[in-house]
Amino acid sequence: MQNWLLQRAYLTPERQALQFEGRTYTWYTLVEQAKRRAGQLITAGITPHSRIALLSPNSDELVITIYAGMLLQCELVMCNCRLSATEIQAQLQDAEVTQVIATSEQQHKVASNVILLEEVQQKEVRIVDMATEWQEQNTLSIMYTSGTTGSPKGVRQTYGNHLSSALSASLNVGMSPEDVWLCTMPLFHVSGFSILMRAVIYGNEVLLYERFDTAEVVHQIITGKATHMSVVAYTLAQILTQLEQQNLDVPPSFKLMLAGGGTIPERYLLRAQQANIRIAQTYGMTETCSQTATLPPQDALRKLGSTGKPLFFNAMRIEGTTEPFIQGEICVKGPHVTPAYIGKFATRNTMQDGWLHTGDIGYFDDEGYLYVVDRRADLIISGGENIYPAEIEQVLLGHAMVLEAGVCGIEDERWGSVPAAFIVVTTSYRQEEVEAYCKAHLASYKCPKHWFVVSQLPRNASNKIMRHQLRELLT
Amino acid sequence: MQNWLLQRAYLTPERQALQFEGRTYTWYTLVEQAKRRAGQLITAGITPHSRIALLSPNSDELVITIYAGMLLQCELVMCNCRLSATEIQAQLQDAEVTQVIATSEQQHKVASNVILLEEVQQKEVRIVDMATEWQEQNTLSIMYTSGTTGSPKGVRQTYGNHLSSALSASLNVGMSPEDVWLCTMPLFHVSGFSILMRAVIYGNEVLLYERFDTAEVVHQIITGKATHMSVVAYTLAQILTQLEQQNLDVPPSFKLMLAGGGTIPERYLLRAQQANIRIAQTYGMTETCSQTATLPPQDALRKLGSTGKPLFFNAMRIEGTTEPFIQGEICVKGPHVTPAYIGKFATRNTMQDGWLHTGDIGYFDDEGYLYVVDRRADLIISGGENIYPAEIEQVLLGHAMVLEAGVCGIEDERWGSVPAAFIVVTTSYRQEEVEAYCKAHLASYKCPKHWFVVSQLPRNASNKIMRHQLRELLT
């Protein structure tokens, strides 16, 4: 296939590509900047085709550096800025990256081989020989996700994965060269990164933000600038509240909100309908390079709680059954599914019989709509971030005062869900000390927000903690 | 990849799929009909994966049979109904088809193994085991095109060719699930066939017609039913004239006319602009499975005479140069390019160094827009049909009264161009007899419309006819 960036700059040079903090780029200027940056990366010691990590919040400079990395055909490990130094270093070690490009604010998390993004921007621009053709099976990005084991696994996302994801998404909801995506999702998550990939493939503009700001988002929607946006339940609620309080009209130019990261409550959907906002609920994961099933807006209320049907290129099935309404593990197949993990999980097959086993439990109704009833490994989704109980439990057990630990999500008005810790402790236990220990080892959104000291944890016959019973301990 | 038809019927069963002579089909009913037809084809003796020919004008029954053939994974040789029995039989023999499905009106052109379409429709429906997954490299359709040799070559068009063509077309002009394509192009040409393939991939509706009818087309446009249509200069002129004479308004719901088969005159573009019709001029051929370069409507007048830039997945270059404004042979590369011919041309490489050499002459301007200056082998495009002079010359030379023959196109107000014959004859020459001979051996649109008896033909040093000098003989 053609080099997407060179092709995009050739085909639609004058179309708007990116806007960030008042700075705007056409596809021509953005790709020119990416070419320059590629030359600067070479000066900074980056080798084409090598595996490098990026550690930066959203910015135009991050976008330019991502695109530059693609021009150099590097494998880009996208690190989550919210993680602690311990977490980041574990990932960097597992990925065996040659260099890490980090902003000055983030660099303290990296032990070695760090290059400051701000310094790269000052480097001499070397002339780089760039491939005009790319290979589908090459790795574009790598993102870490924990899953059932509690140990983060690096997921390889190829050019083919991203391309088929972008194309099947467009077949589902349509696309127009005039679409403008508002992106407040972090680019280090596939939800944000995939917006960037769709942008270059579709030739669309991205309005990028470092973080979600309700007033700014609402402004871009009601003035008719933004046509699409990705949200989670929490950000959707903020937007709806502001629209309602200020009695604002959403113009028909706003086409779609893609809502991921767990089910959107019915009352939000009704409010969205009232506000003239079309919601497409979606189900996907890092291993499926973003969406794998999406519910069209016209079905939002008729199929409440469903995440829709597979996208055009994908197949989905429930393990062990072809009957409707029978629950089982959700399995996915298609050109968007990662071919492999990297690092210590590299030898683990992502597939069984050609199908990705997601660990999530769900069923299909009699019209073939998917309902996800239980997220993998008791996944806690907090403000759109995935939190795996096993990972928190391992940290808790690392402290001498904690003898046993179980973690589950507890409903939270603002974040949807937050982690709660159930622990069996020593006589010397002091909560402040364990909390401080968590803060040092975990991203703050993963630190337990509720603490319960108990005499024992509910366990099954093989002594595994039954996390779904933890909440019952409270009642 | 998934079986497109089963996937489409699963994903959007209730969406409109097809309309023909007042009969309408949703995607569910259309695919159900195709499944039944597949069962009837089995009863009629068709073997899955075999190569069969279809010989029928446009109809819903033809669409159902094409889709049924895909469900059986047959290779479909799409025969041009306008061809003579001699021409059809040469193609069938070359393609070595096991059976031919023809309408009763067309069956006289087929010597053996013909099955009447009307009879297939009455056959018992057998249960068929259909593959749920398809392979990109499998052949979907085969179409004959003459090219420089004058001898029709069967072009293999794979599932991957059609898929990438449909996807890159959508990236160029956008697509919406609500789009409705009006199709008066014959389904046996790639211009029409690709509308059917895009329909199943996009999930769009097709308004199908057996032939172009100005009043009906204008009705579908002005009532807001149709959103897209493929035209050639001749049909575009008819539509514009009717709109102008009746002073009709084209609603904004009509999005695009895709104009192929040669350059659209400037005065048509100006009239189209006046009528509020957006024109995208395109360049493509059977070997590229439809479009390979298309000029966006906003550039129609700024880049007069250009056919635009390559589609997103494609690359194009001019043989022997990378400089703008230098003419040379147009070469094309991409996943939409046929992998091979069949039959007696099966061993001929379609590619040289990975590039399809089109035989057409063109150049790029300094912004990378393609201009086609000379069609391959002095191609005559008459009302959207391609006519190759060499093929007509061979027929002429088959008659004893003709000693030498040269054919070129002459401008025609209605058809754009029509073939003219320049012949050196015997003393016993009688024009009526040669004309009748042509009619028996050639589709009527290929028969010369102008006859010139000359004493000698312009030839170059190696005695090849210089067709571009033929017209000069008249002045």
TrEMBL record, chains A, B:
GO terms for biological process: fatty acid metabolic process; menaquinone biosynthetic process. Its EC number is 6.2.1.26. It catalyses: 2-succinylbenzoate + ATP + CoA = 2-succinylbenzoyl-CoA + AMP + diphosphate. Gene3D superfamilies: 3.30.300.30, N-terminal domain of ligase-like (3.40.50.12780). PROSITE patterns: AMP_BINDING (PS00455). InterPro entries: AMP-bd_C, AMP-bd_C_sf, AMP-binding_CS, AMP-dep_synth/lig_dom, ANL_N_sf, MenE. Pathway: Quinol/quinone metabolism; 1,4-dihydroxy-2-naphthoate biosynthesis; 1,4-dihydroxy-2-naphthoate from chorismate: step 5/7; Quinol/quinone metabolism; menaquinone biosynthesis. It comes from the Bacteria. The keyword Protein transport does not apply. Keywords: ATP-binding, Ligase, Menaquinone biosynthesis, Nucleotide-binding. Residues 391-464 form the AMP-binding enzyme C-terminal domain. GO terms for molecular function: ATP binding; medium-chain fatty acid-CoA ligase activity; o-succinylbenzoate-CoA ligase activity. Coiled coil: none annotated. Residues 8-341 form the AMP-dependent synthetase/ligase domain. The keyword ATP-binding applies. NCBIfam families: menE (TIGR01923), PRK03640.1 (NF002966). Converts 2-succinylbenzoate (OSB) to 2-succinylbenzoyl-CoA (OSB-CoA). Belongs to the ATP-dependent AMP-binding enzyme family. MenE subfamily. This is 2-succinylbenzoate--CoA ligase. The lineage of its organism: Bacteria, Bacillati, Bacillota, Bacilli, Bacillales. The gene is menE.
